[in-house]
């Protein structure tokens, strides 16, 4: 006679077998549904779930479609700008897009191509926000937040950036005993963008010196059991966002201590809690008429309250938690994008002195005297710094903050793609923007291109493969793999491909903070090259091979965005 335990084991095995069989059947069905679309690749780790941020540099390996840095190499091997795949586990057909026309269709039609909301739910730290919502709920968030991003905010951002850059320069010069300083770029860019956010985002000007040695200040604050000061709370939340996303909620309340985890959870919880307290106080101050600056938080609060008065109710407006959540997302996105893009840009200027010289000539023509840059305004300077903006854009083309974004298809449709073939197959290159192994050259002299249509079904996923698009020679030309700011300069015979640049996405769901981020980035870079010559670190000064310099200096890792890991350069002050 069978015991209850035998029955339980048997039922469990039967259930597990059914799940496995159903999974195999679903996977084979999805694979068959890909039809004639090139690719038919297998995706073993969903690239849009937290696990992929941990495994991204290790698995999948180079040469696989979902490898984090495969760029355009797999598309070139398969001869198509659209590739098909199926994800193991959920058996979802995925179509990877490096085609400018197809991606324009996707970004323009937010009803057919919706965000994969599940991938963004981890960012609902204080509540729902513009990034994590769709349809009517998304429109409600946009109605309040959209108008706050205007010329007045950008002018404020510019003026605060100028002030903080000067404080940073004074710190560098005071610490240095000679004309040269070795700068930790990631740390410095993290710090200056944090202070810009605190000032232009919250109206809280914090001196440069107060944010140094942040780790020791956090530990001292935890021992005192006091609420973290604003600038420490803001800086720590930005540093610990990855931790907040990955640590499960139950880990914050464990009745016992776990090495590393308990300390990380305590610091993270304290920082996010303190920031909410400070934001609540700032919201109250804004409503009571406090503050005389039109910072982002104040603009959002006043716009939301004005909408409530016009409607006569809170319908169609945001709760305070949603206000907190939106401004936090804006500031995280702005901080990460600006800090990391600037780190990469400065490294590239050290590696490409000819680009640095051209950039400096432009800046000197706009700001010929010390007085001219001290009194520079956003309106009077930004549009004149065309090449400076091109350097920022080219950096983001080569190192996009988000290399790929998912969309879920809501109804059957077709997307245009290109099949291409050349008598000269794609080959590895001797020079590239980063010295990486997945860069390639594709001869366009005798290439044969054929347009084709890919049928996409409701429930499928399309992947906006931004890095692949940015490295697509059919869009950017035979030198797509090279770092050349001229890619973004229009001439009489060339117009840069607007549909081929998705560093800030595009269409209705494009990044609202794009101009906010580029404003501060252009200002910082212009001021920097006017005051200092940027050089590679002393230990690399003798390296003559530029590709080797790139491989040594332009290393990165996965995170919330693409993150530099070896960002050091020398600054030599002009006399």
From TrEMBL:
Name of a matching Pfam family: p450
Signal peptide: 1-16
Binding site for heme: 511
Keyword Signal in annotation: yes
Biological pathway: Secondary metabolite biosynthesis
GO terms assigned for molecular function: heme binding; iron ion binding; monooxygenase activity; oxidoreductase activity, acting on paired donors, with incorporation or reduction of molecular oxygen
InterPro entries (alphabetical): Cyt_P450 (IPR001128), Cyt_P450_CS (IPR017972), Cyt_P450_E_grp-I (IPR002401), Cyt_P450_sf (IPR036396), Cytochrome_P450_monoxygenase (IPR050121)
Keywords from the named record: Heme, Iron, Metal-binding, Monooxygenase, Oxidoreductase, Signal
Required co-factors: heme
PANTHER family: CYTOCHROME P450 (PTHR24305), CYTOCHROME P450 12A4, MITOCHONDRIAL-RELATED (PTHR24305:SF166)
Family from the record: Belongs to the cytochrome P450 family.
Name of the protein in question: Cytochrome P450
